[in-house]
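Dear all,

This email documents one entry for the complex benchmark we are building for the journal club exercise. For each entry we list the sequence lines for every component of the assembly. Then comes the predicted three-dimensional structure of the complex as a C-alpha cell string, followed by one or two observations. Please use this as the template for your own entries, and keep the labels exactly as they appear.
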Amino acid sequence: MEKSTFVLKAGLAQMLKGGVIMDVVTVEHAKIAEDAGACAVMALERVPADIRKAGGVARMSDPRMIEAIMKAVSVPVMAKCRIGHFAEAQVLQSLGVDYIDESEVLTPADDAHHIWKHDFNVPFVCGCRDLGEALRRIGEGAAMVRTKGEAGTGNIVEAVRHMRAVQDGIRRLQALGQEELMAEAKSIGAPIDLMIEIHKTGKLPVVNFCAGGVATPADAALMMQLGADGIFVGSGIFKSSNPPAFAKAVVKATTHFKDPVIVAEVSKGLGEAMPGIEMSTLQPEERLAKRGW
Amino acid sequence: MPRIAVLAMQGDFAEHIRALKKIGADAIEARTPADIESADGVIIPGGESTTITKLMKEYGLWDSVKLAHSKGKAIWGTCAGMIIISRNIVGQEKAQETLGILDVDTQRNGYGRQMDSFEENILSSAVNGWFHAVFIRAPILKRIGVKVEVVAKGADGSPIAVCDGNVFATSFHPELTDDTRFHSYFVGLLNKNNRQ
C-alpha cells in the first residue's frame, strides 16, 4: 500500500472538479457552505475582502478554528499558509487538513522561494497568473493550481486575464516544434520536463480552478466556459447580502454553466452581491496577485 | 451501440468518459433527465456525495436514475457514486438520503482523511486478475446484502467492489488509471438487463 503519492494528491483535486470551494470563517459558515453543495471548504480567519481592509500581516489561521471546521463538515477542508512558510504548512499537515493553499492572499514569508511541496504528505494548491507560474508551482509539487485573479475585489477581470493567459500559454506551446521548447521554457521560466509533457498532451497535468473575483453565478459560468475545472469563491458568498442563496446559486451555475436558462433562473432575486472594487483604484502594493515568484 | 450516461453534476465524470471512449463505447455527460433517459446505462462518478446528491435532486436526476434502475438499466457507482446508490450511510450524525438501489451500507471517508488515501494492487473476479486501485477518501462497505456478490477485495480482505445483477459499485477509482478493464466489465453488464 502506498500513501501520499502524486496520483493521490492530484486525484483528490480530480474529485473536486465541477464544484465550488468556499471560504468560511466560522463553523456556521462551513455548514451553510456544505448545505449549499460546496465540494470543499477553505477554513480561514478572515475572507480576502476583510484581509484587504485590515491591512498588516495576514498569517495562517488559529489551528483551533481549523479543527472546529474539520469536525463540523464531511467535505474536504483546506487551509492557507503563507508563501514560503513551510513551518505553517507543517502545522497544517499535522492537523490533518485535506489540502493546503500556499496563498498570495496571506502576506508572503519568503520573497524569493515557494515551499518545496514534494516534501509533504498533504497535497497543495497554488495560485498562478500564466502557464510559466503554474508550471513552476507544479514543479515544486503542487497537485492542483488555481488562477489568482484579484482576491477580495468581487471583480472578475483579473481571473479572466489569468485563465486566458494559462490557456494561451498551452495553445502557444502546442504550436511549437520540439526544438523550440527549451527556448520557450527559458522564456516563461517553466521546467522543461513539464513543457515536454504538455506539448504532448495539450493540457495541464493537474486540475486548474479559478479564484479571485467570483461574485455572481454568471461569473462562475463565465470562468467554467473559459476552461476552469471548478471555482473558488472567497468573499463572494459571505460578503453578499444573502449567503445561503448566493452559495446555492453559484453551485448550480457551476454545474450548469453551459445552460444560460438555468444560470438566469438561479440569478433571480438573489439580492446584493459583494461590493466590488475597480482595479484602477488599487495601489500597486494592494495587488495580491503580484505576490509569488 | 449502447450508450452510457455519466452523471455530470460534479466530480471526475470526464475521466469516465475518456475511459469509455478509449474502449469504443458511446458516452455522454448527463446533466438532465433526458440525458439519462437516452442511455442504456448510468455511471455516478467520484466526487463529493453531498454535492452530487443535492444537484441531482434539484434538476430531477434523482428520480430519473431511480427510473433507469427500475427499467433494468445498468448502474455503476464509483466512490461517491457507491455511497449514493447504497441502501444506507452509517457512521455519521447527519442524515443523508441515498438512492437505495444497491443493498449495501457504506461509511463515508471510511479510511480517514486525505492523508489516509492510498493505492494498492487488488484481486478482482470482475477483471480476472490484479488491478491497481486508487482509493481517495474512500468509503467502506459496512454491510452487504445476501444477494450482493463481492467481486473484489482489498489487500486487507475487505470488500471493495460489489455487484447485484447489473448494479455495480467500486469504492476505488478505475477511471483515474489507464487500465480500462472495469469499464469493459461495466459495458458487459449493459446487456444483462434482468428486470424487464
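Observations: Residues 157-175 of chain A form the longest helix (19 residues). The two ends of chain A are 36 Å apart (CA to CA).
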